[in-house]
């Protein structure tokens, strides 16, 4: 427990530095680059029929007129990246609820495939959108991976987080997930562990249902709450007890490893597929859409959260960047170490090749620490290590994404104050 607290504290301090982004003027930042290795394209669709209390992603209530205008701007921004000499190997479309306007989504996917060398597209959705007509449209658009936000099959949990009335009971959701089999190369379900009222028995039952459904992939996140929404969250669903997180995580891994392999610390797959944490598989990625984050050329940046202003800037053919931070070499190496650790293996030789021999001198004290606490084990190859204790990766990424959520809430508050 002491080691876990130390890891959490250190990572929390580091990621606070990462997300001290400086203001940027839309259109004044250049994202031009010469063609290099393929990257990932992330598109953000911020619209939802209703807003979940625990969610810190950039999202707003759905209004069809503004949503259609938004999709048009999104396609314009895609063209801007093409004109700036970017190419992408895969695309991940998240939200919000990306499937909220399927005709607009299908048109956007068609554009992506026509201008970039895309091999795989992943789309997020919610259980209420799992009907045959929608699946036919997504299948025709060439979607390889569909990720469904389930969170839990337990009705008490679904009621506490406001999803029961919106998406139905666990018994309603189960046949919808079962009927998805065969529609796409990969069907993923997003689950969350360590809800305040979640008991071991509730978690065990969720795991029984998952194994019975035989889905291709399961992503099991720890509950992550932004600092700015913590009080509201605790009032509505209770206080999060991170002390029991490790026990719950060990229950999850013990059960799922019987049929799945670990793609990351918290993603379990039956086949090779794109994962929700695309930051693990791709060194760099472009963020397109309001509130999207990107990481290119050692710079992390965020797009405008104000949707009308986002649309306005794109119409003027300006990159809609609102904030950015240029990482130094140390920060880049720490970021790459974190992503590789979370991805279950570390290739120090690869990092050294990118950044020079002194990368070994800088990172080895960190590697040595994880060797001492038995979090890493050498493979015997030059710079090769495997992760022995995945929960350290869970802790580090939990702190990383909490910092991202804090920044989103800060930006959202600024937008709301302007309205």
Spatially, the strands of the biggest sheet line up as 10-11-9-8-7-6-5-2-12
Mean pLDDT, all residues: 86
* CATH class identity of the largest domain: Alpha Beta
The share of residues in helices is 40-55%
Q: Given the structure, what is the number of helices?
A: 16
Describe the protein in words.
The chain is α/β, with parallel strands linked by helices. The protein folds into two domains: 1-19 and 329-414, no CATH class; 20-281, Alpha-Beta Horseshoe (pyruvate-formate lyase- activating enzyme), CATH 3.80.30.20. The protein is built from 16 helices and 18 strands. It has helices at residues 2-18, 64-83, 102-115, 132-140, 155-160, 164-167, 170-179, 200-213, 230-237, 245-256, 278-281, 307-315, 329-342, 348-355, 358-372, 390-418; strands at residues 22-23, 39-45, 47-48, 60-61, 88-95, 120-125, 145-151, 186-193, 217-222, 261-262, 267-269, 285-288, 293-296, 299-303, 321-326, 345-347, 376-378, 384-387. Strands 10-11-9-8-7-6-5-2-12 form a nine-stranded mixed sheet. It has a four-stranded antiparallel sheet with strand order 1-15-14-13, with no helix packed on it. The chain has a three-stranded antiparallel sheet with strand order 16-18-17. α4 (132-140) links the parallel β6 (120-125) and β7. The longest helix has 29 residues, at 390-418. It is globular and about 55 Å long. The N and C termini lie far apart (45 Å).
Helices and strands in order, then pairings?
Elements: H1 2-18, E1 22-23, E2 39-45, E3 47-48, E4 60-61, H2 64-83, E5 88-95, H3 102-115, E6 120-125, H4 132-140, E7 145-151, H5 155-160, H6 164-167, H7 170-179, E8 186-193, H8 200-213, E9 217-222, H9 230-237, H10 245-256, E10 261-262, E11 267-269, H11 278-281, E12 285-288, E13 293-296, E14 299-303, H12 307-315, E15 321-326, H13 329-342, E16 345-347, H14 348-355, H15 358-372, E17 376-378, E18 384-387, H16 390-418
Parallel strand pairs: 2-5, 2-12, 3-4, 5-6, 6-7, 7-8, 8-9
Antiparallel strand pairs: 1-15, 9-11, 10-11, 13-14, 14-15, 16-18, 17-18
């Amino acid at each position: 427990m002491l080691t876990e607290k130390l890891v959490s504290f250190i990572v929390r301090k580091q990621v606070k530095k990462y997300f001290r982004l400086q203001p940027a003027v839309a259109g004044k930042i250049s994202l031009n680059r010469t063609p290099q290795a393929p990257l990932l394209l992330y598109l953000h669709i911020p619209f939802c029929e209703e807003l979940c209390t625990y969610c810190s992603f950039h999202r707003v209530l759905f209004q069809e007129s503004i949503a259609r205008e938004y999709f048009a701007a999104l396609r314009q921004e895609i063209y801007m990246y093409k004109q700036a000499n970017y190419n992408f190997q895969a695309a991940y479309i998240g939200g919000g609820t990306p499937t909220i306007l399927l005709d607009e989504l299908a048109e956007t996917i068609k554009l992506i495939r026509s201008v970039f060398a895309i091999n795989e597209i992943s789309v997020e959705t919610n259980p209420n959108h799992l009907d045959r007509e929608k699946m036919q449209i997504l299948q025709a658009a060439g979607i390889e991976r569909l990720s469904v936000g389930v969170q839990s099959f337990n009705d008490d949990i679904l009621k506490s987080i406001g999803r029961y009335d919106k998406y139905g009971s666990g018994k309603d959701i189960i046949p919808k997930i079962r009927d998805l089999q065969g529609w796409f190369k990969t069907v993923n379900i997003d689950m969350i562990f360590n809800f305040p009222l979640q008991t071991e028995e509730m978690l065990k039952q969720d795991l029984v249902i998952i194994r019975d459904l035989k889905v291709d992939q399961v992503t099991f996140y720890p509950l992550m709450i932004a600092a700015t929404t913590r009080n509201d969250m605790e009032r509505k669903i209770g206080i999060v007890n991170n002390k029991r997180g490790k026990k719950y995580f060990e229950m999850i891994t013990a059960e799922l490893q019987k049929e799945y392999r670990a793609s990351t610390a918290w993603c379990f797959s039956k086949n090779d597929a794109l994962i929700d944490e695309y930051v693990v598989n791709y060194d760099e990625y472009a963020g397109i859409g309001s509130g999207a984050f990107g990481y290119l050329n050692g710079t992390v940046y965020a797009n405008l959260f104000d949707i009308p202003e986002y649309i306005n800037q794109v119409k003027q053919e300006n990159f809609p960047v609102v904030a950015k931070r240029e990482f130094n070499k140390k920060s880049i190496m720490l970021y790459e170490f974190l992503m590789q650790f979370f991805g279950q293996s570390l290739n120090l030789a690869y990092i050294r090749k990118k950044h020079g021999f002194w990368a070994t001198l800088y990172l080895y004290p960190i590697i040595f620490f994880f060797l001492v606490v038995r979090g890493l084990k050498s493979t015997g190859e030059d710079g090769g290590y495997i992760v022995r204790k995945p929960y350290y990766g869970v802790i580090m990424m939990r702190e990383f994404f909490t910092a991202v959520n804090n920044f989103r809430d800060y930006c959202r508050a600024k937008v709301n104050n302007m309205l």
